[in-house]
């Protein structure tokens, strides 16, 4: 970082927050904005871009690049308890693009449109002298008053996450250094799982309805569980305590952690999980768990919001020191 | 262009159109998509990106870059007869960005938010190893059934444009070659006007309500009047005849054309006008002109939609040969 320049959060706070005058912009502190619609509905809108060499590897398969660009946005739609309504995509192509590459890209979008029931609404194609990038804006429909914000949590509420945490973060490390597979003693299928989870996030749209019904606060975990739980707690003006032993991990991550203590910190602070982090009132927890079970998406109680501030992740009764705490793509 | 690779229109048709399954996507043949809202409204949504070195000069003032990125999208909102509801912006910053630059960028957005009554709703900031780029998605509200499509025109309807045509195209040429100011014998103020019109388009939002009320077909002129009129005519399954003498031009463009025949073709086929092109039923023309006059935005009858196909621009009774016809940024 250049001296005197803020990080991404500081940059947004200092430069862009003053522009977010609409109430639905939530001061740019949330995963998505809302626009009031008639008939008791709200439109949820979010945008995220991915750049070759920053958010994905230039030699990733084109269908995976397309799907990742779409899915990181659909993940925000799921986190706000909304049903996806469509998306727009802007694709910037470098000079050496090929029709083969573009066919793969479009095939990826087509597959995900089928899987998630969305349509392309519009977009733009531009040339760029720099690396390829993709910017997606996703729209979703939500019921008015049922869009859980990051700020809706309160002390005493339980914290849940979907799926498993840390796969993508370790997958990224594996991608950069294949020798880690040996160090972590991974089976071939475990290695593939971690690599796949980095390549292709899984937006938890199957849980949208239940998020809308039960979550008092929600966000998707894109910058690491520790940092993102800290963001949700801060937005809710409280603290969070997470029990590391309860954080759901895949067999692959568990094996990596057995052989490499640093893998635990990487799993808890690395990015690209795209799982949901939800605050649930303890009285609602049984019904929430019961309804979530029917979706086939695992939800796990990992801790609670507490009075005070900050995020503490305990392991065997002692707070873990996770260093910087949060991953940032910026 | 590399052999075998389609141009932008061909690329959209071949690769992206099959993905546009929602009716509101209008097969990606329009300036914006619509999403049905309740209460007799439609949400209009559009996205356009600008890349340094392609759509603007890297040394353009940062406030002008920000405003251009926003305005090219607001222009699409105006073309669909909608009132702007807000926008999202993704900004990709190269390594050497400075807080001074970003302050200028944000000041530009703030000024336009004030001018056009919109709020930032959300966005993304990313790093890029390539040139700076800005992607904006704009949202607007329209009355159901009052979103003029490119395809709504019919033979016999009049064609109108707002403002003046060709300023930005000549401004771009001046920017690239200052000696043209001498060749075109431009006064200092005329030169400044052309440069400004390239730098800062003027979205015609003041005309939105009247566009919604009267236009049978509409689009914004971003890729040159000749080519864009051809697109509107083709979408409406008819042809268009435009009288070059009636196309409204600034004193600066008129002077350039006096001294340089090539300037006329540049004005009629160059891009970046961001004026509106509207088809109006002849019976509605007087009321349309009367109501438009009250907005202070000039509207000029330049020709008509006709049976058949293609676009013809006549000068002194003879069709002009404009060469390639349409400018494309791609």
List the helices and strands and how they pair.
The structure is a homodimer of 330-residue chains.
Chain A lengths: L7 H9 L16 E4 L4 E11 L10 H18 L3 E11 L5 H18 L3 E8 L5 E11 L14 E5 L4 H10 L3 H4 L4 H12 L8 H7 E7 L3 H11 L3 E5 L7 H9 L1 H9 L5 E6 L4 H9 L5 E8 L4 E5 L2 E2 L11
Parallel strand pairs in A: 3-4, 8-11
Antiparallel strand pairs in A: 1-2, 2-5, 3-5, 6-9, 6-10, 7-9, 8-10, 11-12
Helix pairs in contact in A: 2-3, 4-6, 4-10, 9-10
Could you provide a short overview of the structure?
2 copies of one chain form a homodimer. By secondary structure, chain A is an alpha+beta fold.
Tell me what you see in this structure:
Chains A, B: Residues 155-313 form the PurM-like C-terminal domain. Chains A, B: This is Thiamine-monophosphate kinase. Two copies of one chain form a homodimer. In chain A, a hairpin with a 4-residue loop joins strand 1 (33-36) and strand 2. In chain A, helix 2 (62-79) runs parallel beside helix 3 (99-116), helix 4 (167-176) packs across helix 6 and helix 4 (167-176) packs across helix 10 (261-269). Chain A contains eleven helices and twelve strands. Chain A has two domains: 31-143, PurM-like, N-terminal domain (60s Ribosomal Protein L30, Chain: A, 2-Layer Sandwich); 150-319, Phosphoribosyl-aminoimidazole Synthetase, Chain A, domain 2, CATH 3.90.650. A seven-stranded mixed β-sheet of chain A has the order 7-9-6-10-8-11-12. In chain A, strands 1-2-5-3-4 form a five-stranded mixed β-sheet. Chain A is α+β, with helices and mostly antiparallel strands and 330 residues long. Chain A is globular.
């Amino acid at each position: 970082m250049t001296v005197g320049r803020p990080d991404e959060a500081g940059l947004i706070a200092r430069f862009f927050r003053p522009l977010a005058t609409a109430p639905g912009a939530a001061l740019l502190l949330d995963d998505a904005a809302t626009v009031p619609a008639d008939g008791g509905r709200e439109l949820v809108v979010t945008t995220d871009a991915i750049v070759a060499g920053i958010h994905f590897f230039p030699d990733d398969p084109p269908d995976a690049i397309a799907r990742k660009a779409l899915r990181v946005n659909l993940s925000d739609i799921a986190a706000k308890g909304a049903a996806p309504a469509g998306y727009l995509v802007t694709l910037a192509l470098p000079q050496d693009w090929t029709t083969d590459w573009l066919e793969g890209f479009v095939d990826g979008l087509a597959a995900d449109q089928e899987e998630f029931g969305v349509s392309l609404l519009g977009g733009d194609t531009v040339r760029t002298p720099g690396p390829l990038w993709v910017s997606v804006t996703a729209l979703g429909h939500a019921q008015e008053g049922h869009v859980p914000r990051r700020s809706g949590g309160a002390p005493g509420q339980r914290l849940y996450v979907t799926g498993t945490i840390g796969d993508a973060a370790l997958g990224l490390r594996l991608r950069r250094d294949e020798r880690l597979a040996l160090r972590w003693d991974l089976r071939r299928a475990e290695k593939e799982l971690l690599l796949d989870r980095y390549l292709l996030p899984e937006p938890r749209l199957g849980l949208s309805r239940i998020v809308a019904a039960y979550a008092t606060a929600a966000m998707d975990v894109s910058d690491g569980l520790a940092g993102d739980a800290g963001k949700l707690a801060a937005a809710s003006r409280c603290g969070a305590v997470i029990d590391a032993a309860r954080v759901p991990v895949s067999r692959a991550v568990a094996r990596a952690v057995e052989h490499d203590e640093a893998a635990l910190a990487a799993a808890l602070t690395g990015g690209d999980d795209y799982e949901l982090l939800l605050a649930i009132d303890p009285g609602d927890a049984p019904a929430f768990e019961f309804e979530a079970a029917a979706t086939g998406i695992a939800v796990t109680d990992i801790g609670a919001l507490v009075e005070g501030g900050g995020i503490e992740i305990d392991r065997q009764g002692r707070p873990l020191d996770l260093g910087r705490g949060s991953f940032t793509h910026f």
